[in-house]
Structure formats: C-alpha cells, structure tokens
Specification:
This protein has about 210 residues and is mainly α. About 75% of the residues lie in helices and about 0% in strands.
Length: about 210
C-alpha cells in the first residue's frame, strides 16, 4: 500500500467512525426500528447516497457499532484486572468496568434493548440481509468474555478461594447473566442506576454462592 492509499484509507476510516458516532445517537433517540439511514446520514453530515460508500444498510451500521464497542470493553477489562488479585476484587473490577462502560455509552443500551436489535443479534438478522460475518464478530466477543471469566474462576478454585459445583464455563455463564438484567432495568428506568451499590450487591450474592463454607 503506497502513501496515497494509506491516506485514503485513513480518511475512509475517519468517515466510518463519524457515521458510527452519529448512529449511536440516532439509535438512542429513535430506537432501532424507527431509525432510517437518512437519519444517520443527516446526523453525520452525509447524504444518504454517500453513506452507501461506507455501509450497505442499517443492520451493518448497528453490528459494526456493537462489535467495535464490545471489543473496546474487552481491552479495558484486560488492562484493569490483575491476575494476582482475589476473585472478589476481580469480580468487582469486572462488573464496575462493564457497568461504567455502558453508563458512558448509555445509547447502546437504549438501542440494544429493543426487540428488533435483540432479533438481529440472536436470530441472525431481519429483513433481506443477515450479515453473518458481523454476527460472528459479536458472538466471538461473547465467547471470549465467557472464556475469560471461566479461566478467572478456574484459577480462583485452584487457590481455594471458591468452590465450584459445576464446570467453570457453566458457572461463568450464570455469573454473567445478571449483567443483562441490570442493563435492562436501566433501559426501563431511562437512567443509569447506582453502579457501586449494584456491584456490591452482585458480588455479595455471587461470593456467597461460590463460597466453600456452606
């Protein structure tokens, strides 16, 4: 790739980012179903025709947005969680980071919690196009986080910090499930809850369930 191509790709990537930044605002304002491509184009300062140079349709924009933000979240988790820390500390950092992230990007919750966006993620798309590669990207992220938490639990059991009554991958799935419930409650309330209190309550419940002292 020569210098000209590098510059062109940099400009293209900047414009793609502008579109995604605009999309997250429009999804929050209108919801996934009511959002139109022309709404996103107008917010980003593009014509609808020029938008097609970067994304073929609304589903593609949505999935690129979700995958990008979730990859950012995974990087932050890796940076903040010390492998040598106790399992309680790791869980606190895990939940604090996830809830703070979605608190900062509250518009994602508003868009992702709609029935239409749930169908996109879990049923492989709606309408004429399924965007399998983007769905795979989201599912790969989901699997990566579950694997990360599973390894965290396995190490904690080796250190006799916790006692697992089921394989670590199974426990990790149940351990992560309250996150979606919390985000859904924020969606219904239309505002972010008390993150510190929520994390403390979750960790108290989970550590009680994982304790070796029954």
């Amino acid at each position: 790739m020569d210098l000209k191509e590098i510059r062109e790709e940099a400009v293209r990537e900047t414009k793609r980012t502008l579109i995604l930044d605009a999309a997250i605002q429009v999804f929050a304002e209108k919801g996934y179903h009511e959002t139109r491509l022309e709404d996103i184009a107008a917010k980003a300062g593009f014509s609808k025709a020029s938008l097609y140079n970067y994304y073929p349709d609304k589903e593609s924009i949505f999935f690129n947005l979700v995958v990008l933000k979730h990859e950012d979240l995974y990087k932050v988790l890796n940076e903040r969680i010390d492998p040598a820390a106790s399992i309680r500390t790791k869980l606190e950092i895990l939940f604090n980071t996830i809830f703070a992230f979605f608190g900062e990007h509250f518009a994602i919750i508003l868009a992702m919690s709609s029935h239409e966006s749930d169908c996109l993620i879990h049923n492989g798309g709606v309408g004429r196009k399924f965007h399998k590669e983007l769905i795979h990207g989201f599912q790969a992220w989901d699997a990566k986080v579950k694997s990360y938490v599973s390894e965290m639990l396995r190490l904690a059991e080796e250190r006799n910090e916790i006692c697992l009554v089921a394989p670590a991958p199974v426990v990790s799935m149940y351990l992560l499930s309250p996150i979606s419930s919390v985000l859904r409650s924020w969606k219904w309330a239309g505002k972010i809850g008390d993150i510190r209190e929520t994390v403390t309550q979750l960790c108290d419940i989970l550590m009680n369930g994982l304790s070796c002292r029954k």
